[in-house]
Amino acid sequence: MFEYTIKRKNIKNIILKINRKGDIIVSAPLKISKASLDKFIISNTQWIKEKLTKITLNPPHFSPVNSEFIYLFGEKIDLPENFPNNLEEKKIFLSNYYKNKSIELVTPIIEHFLKITGLTMEHLTFRVMRTRWGSCNSSKKYININSILVASPLESIEYIALHEIAHLHFPHHKKEFWNFISKYMPDWEIRKKQLIFFEL
């Protein structure tokens, strides 16, 4: 059973909420028993799981510079060692951290999809971008990936990798482009919804 916080109030019905941090909070009538609340939580297990999954995959207003954790491959992990206290230093630290992790972890994913699609690339770069997950210059065969992409689940990273690689051959979003994506990744729409975005 999930752990939860009880807030007793002068109310008639039980109210179940989950905040942005994933904390389960139960507002309960003053005289209701703990056993009754436990049963209530158990009866709402599926709803709780669905809500917690959404929070994990799409954390609203998530900001690593103001958090006690960061995301890597869609999982919460503790802040890196020597994490600075100064706001600007935090941004620089995380920018470098995610870039290095992208080089290490995302590069092999790009190489994998280049191999299975038979397409070629001349240059790959990683940097923090505010408005897009990646870009591709099809004439020069350059691909640029947003380095905070590595915070998202593996399935979503693979989608962006394939998306930008597809632009090497299709410099547009016409039907042929999406047919190409679907050929190698039929579930791309689900993967797209799992992307985790935030600003540094």
Q: What's the average pLDDT?
A: 87
Note the run of SSEs as H and E: EEEHHEEHHEEEHHH
Shape: elongated
Main beta-sheet strand count, sense and barrel state? 3 strands, mixed
Poorly predicted ranges: none
Count the DSSP helices. 7
Strand content: 15-25%
Strand order of the largest sheet: 1-3-2
End-to-end separation:
36 Å
Determine the fraction of residues in helical runs and give it as a percent range.
Answer: 40-55%
Record field, number of beta strands:
8
Q: State the oligomer.
A: single chain
Look at the helices and sheets and give the structural class. Answer: alpha/beta
How large, in whole angstroms, is the Cα Rg? 21 Å
Structure description:
The chain contains seven helices and eight strands. It is an alpha/beta fold and 200 residues long. Strands 1-3-2 form a three-stranded mixed beta sheet, covered by helices on one side. Strands 6-8-7 form a three-stranded mixed beta sheet. The chain is elongated and about 70 Å long.
Describe the structure in brief.
With 200 residues, this protein is α/β, with parallel strands linked by helices. It is 41% helix and 18% strand.
Main traits of this protein?
200 residues, alpha/beta, 3-stranded mixed beta sheet, 7 helices
Question: Could you outline the blueprint of secondary structure elements for this entry?
Answer:
Layout: E1 5-9, E2 15-18, E3 24-29, H1 34-43, H2 45-57, E4 69-72, E5 75-78, H3 87-105, H4 107-117, E6 123-127, E7 134-137, E8 142-146, H5 154-166, H6 175-184, H7 188-193
Parallel strand pairs: 1-3, 6-8
Antiparallel strand pairs: 2-3, 4-5, 7-8
Helix pairs in contact: 4-5
